[in-house]
């Protein structure tokens, strides 16, 4: 169960500091000041992982799961499994594995 956030912390800053905080926050793509300040205070840094490979991988995973569901439905209805369906799934999974390796490679460079 998630711990309730019921404590308040008051922080005094200058207008210039506030502007810099917001610039950095928006630069990271974070829209919640509370989340940004909490992350920075607790961990000391925020990472903005905008990897196009992650979006591609997510898209392929969604396609793969849809195709697998369609194949399972067809097999349950007709008791037939087609080699083309398996080959298509194998091709998509191979592409997912390749993208996963690219992502891991980029993350290891950080």
Tell me the helix content. over 70%
Q: Compute the number of structural domains.
A: 2
First-to-last CA distance: 32 Å
Quick one: biggest sheet?
A: none
Mean pLDDT: 85
Total strands: 0
Radius of gyration: 23 Å
Main structural class: mainly alpha
- Overall shape: it is elongated
Give the number of helices: 4
The ordered string of helix (H) and strand (E) elements is HHHH
- How much beta, percentage-wise? under 5%
Uncertain segments are: none
What do these coordinates show?
Pfam families: NikA-like. This protein has 110 residues and is mostly helical. 70% of the residues lie in helices and 0% in strands. It has 2 domains: 47 residues; 57 residues. Helix 3 packs antiparallel against helix 4. The protein is elongated. The two termini are 32 Å apart. 0% of the residues are buried. The mean pLDDT is 85.
Keywords:
110 residues, mainly alpha, 2 domains, elongated
Compile the SSE list and pairings.
Layout: H1 15-27, H2 33-43, H3 52-78, H4 83-108
InterPro entries: NikA-like
Protein name: Plasmid mobilization relaxosome protein MobC
Could you give a quick summary of the protein structure above?
This protein is 70% helix and 0% strand. The chain has 110 residues and is an all-alpha fold. The mean pLDDT is 85.
